[in-house]
Write a structure and sequence with these properties.
Radius of gyration: 19 Å
Distance between the termini: 20 Å
Structural class: mainly alpha
Order of helices and strands: HHHHHHHHHHHHH
Helix content: over 70%
Shape: globular
Number of helices: 13
Number of domains: 1
Number of strands: 0
Largest sheet: none
């Protein structure tokens, strides 16, 4: 099935209103506090977020997928600062992208969004309090870039089949699908608690490989999911735990005007591209992300072996998911 063309001449009033309010408040604060020094102090972070924000709006990867490794490994920013910054900046960039998606009526799958988000909220809270203190972020990053690469390779293989059928939404949605999405959302939320992103790409794997959802639908759906997840993460660290650092605040302040435009720009551009072009863009991101992580982390032989095991295991898991024939008529259908 093909995605319906976006209705022409739609004016995204929600996005325009949001950006106007955000930039007005930002301008007032920066001017009144004379905080323009932040641009010179954090220019490398601002440059990183030009690309990171575009990727966040145009793919199932949040901007943290770009910012987190660059910040922690190249700019020597503490992992906790990079994570808190990720939640904060995505609350601007991905909210902008989501409002543009809604304003332009870009097609999404609402069952995917609501059930994954529900599970993701619980996963994020649990992960924040019980998993994050136990995890070594660089090692975890190596694991996840290896896993995402395996997904990209299987998606590429599936898309190379000339007769591959894709759908605009989950077909004949039943209760087992609801449970499956909530479970994947729960795990994805735990991943996001570590890096500030993850639920979007993790559940995107399920949607495109198992449910065979069109990438033109799955990408904007995943953007909305990460938006809701990141708002909760920002609230937890900013208002509940209150561990939002001054450095994270300064970098956030410097990057706000960048992400307010580049994240929705990514969503707009991707809505105009054909499905396979979107998939190709995703393959490139996943490959570059993997190579970049390996180059920056410079893993030991033991960690390379760990990465290889993850890659092979991921290939087996995603290939199995792709081979499954989903039952379309069993169970209780949910409207």
């Amino acid at each position: 099935m093909s995605v319906e063309k976006t209705t022409k001449n739609k004016i995204p009033y929600l996005y325009i209103g949001f950006v106007t309010i955000v930039l007005s408040c930002w301008t007032f604060y920066v001017t009144s506090t004379n905080s323009f020094f932040i641009f010179a102090k954090h220019w490398a972070a601002v440059a990183t977020m030009i690309f990171g924000a575009f990727v966040a709006g145009s793919s199932p990867e949040g901007s943290a997928a770009i910012a987190y490794p660059v910040f922690t490994l190249l700019l020597k920013i503490e992992p906790a600062v990079a994570r808190n910054f990720a939640f904060a900046i995505q609350s601007i960039g991905m909210t902008s992208a989501s409002l543009l998606i809604l304003g332009l009526k870009i097609k999404v799958d609402w069952n995917y969004i609501k059930y994954v988000t529900f599970g993701g909220f619980f996963g994020l809270v649990f992960g924040t309090y019980y998993i994050v203190p136990l995890i070594s972020p660089p090692l975890a990053k190596l694991f996840f870039v290896s896993l995402w690469l395996s997904f990209g390779l299987i998606l590429w293989y599936e898309n190379s089949k000339s007769q591959r059928e894709v759908f605009d939404k989950i077909q004949n949605f039943i209760r087992s699908d609801m449970v499956r999405l909530i479970f994947f959302g729960l795990i994805g939320g735990m991943i996001s608690s570590i890096f500030g992103t993850g639920i979007n790409i993790f559940t995107f794997c399920l949607m495109t490989i198992y449910y065979r959802i069109n990438e033109k639908v799955a990408v904007p759906s995943s953007v909305i999911i990460m938006t809701l997840e990141t708002l909760l993460g920002f609230f937890i660290h900013g208002a509940v735990i209150r561990d939002f650092q001054q450095e994270a605040f300064e970098i956030w302040l410097a990057c706000i005007p960048i992400v307010a435009f580049f994240a929705p720009l990514g969503s707009f551009v991707i809505s105009k591209l054909p499905r396979k072009a979107i998939a190709t863009f995703l393959y490139i991101i996943l490959i570059v992300q993997f190579i970049g992580a390996m180059w920056v982390l410079r893993p030991s032989l033991q960690h390379i072996g760990y990465s290889a095991i993850t890659l092979v295991s991921g290939l087996a898991i995603f290939a199995y998911l792709a081979s499954l024939k989903r039952p379309e008529t069993k169970g209780t259908k949910i409207q």
